[in-house]
Amino acid sequence: MQFEKLSNGVSIPMLGFGTYRIKPSEVADAVAEALADGYRHFDCAHIYGNEVEVGEAFKKSGIKREDLFVTSKVWNADQGYESTLAAFDQTLKDLQLDYLDLYLIHWPNEENFQLTLDTWRALEKIYADGKAKAIGVSNFSEQQLKEVFAMATVKPMVNQIERHPYKTQVELGKFDQENGIVNEGYSPIGHGHLILEDETINQIAKAHGKTPAQVVLRWQVDTGFVIFPKSSNSAHVKANFDIFDFNLTADEIKAIDALDQDKHLNYDK
């Protein structure tokens, strides 16, 4: 496993397991299998509707709390100072945890950004109270981050954004790094939208004796992005973890970078 250091010194595993769109009836088994395969970083969110089951899997695993890195996020409907504090407490209860390693604002409220700033104040309190070891945001643009900087006493430590070979997020990723913000990339293989069939990626995979998915995940890590692929396929879960025994060359990284189409694969925007 490789780790990235957040601005406050907290270490975050660069590879985690995502729980998005895994049914409540399936997620406990998926998390248990991921834990057995060596995953210790889990990306969760209230809106995923499965935090209770994820919490049960943590409890049953017998793994020490300090050996896990758990992220959750406050959903749009819960934004605001008091409502965020309440939502956070509910997430802790659902996950059966005493603290989170990372808590994020899931989306900026573009119609009422003041509500988002109030939400950030709540995250600062959660952090000051020691209930989250780190705080950050998700899906924030450079301008939105600057608005948070202007009022924050604690700057976001993470920005979780869509990132894959067809949307490489060069400018935003660079801005985050320059401001001490660790980049996280969701949909790291783009839900498989043509990316795994891409000729360039397949040629690189053949050269390393790896799968296209493993090459894309290695590219993410080699370019400084924390990632958390998710799968209900046990073979894929194991294979996704097997990316730390090779590195891409500088030319291979450039070749994947060149595939950028600035293309969202999750939503139109």
What does this structure look like?
Helix 1 (24-37) packs parallel to helix 2, helix 1 runs parallel beside helix 9 (234-241) and helix 3 (81-95) packs across helix 4 (113-128). The protein has a single domain (3-257), classed as TIM Barrel (Alpha-Beta Barrel), CATH 3.20.20. It is globular and about 55 Å long. The model has no long low-confidence stretch (mean pLDDT 94). It has helices at residues 24-37, 51-61, 81-95, 113-128, 142-151, 170-178, 199-208, 212-222, 234-241, 250-257, and strands at 3-5, 11-13, 17-18, 41-43, 69-74, 102-105, 135-138, 158-162, 182-186, 226-227. It has 269 residues and is α/β, with parallel strands linked by helices. It has an eight-stranded parallel sheet. It has a two-stranded antiparallel sheet with strand order 1-2. The longest helix has 16 residues, at 113-128. Helix 3 (81-95) links the parallel strand 5 and strand 6 (102-105). Belongs to the aldo/keto reductase family. Keywords: NADP, Oxidoreductase. It holds the Pfam family Aldo_ket_red.
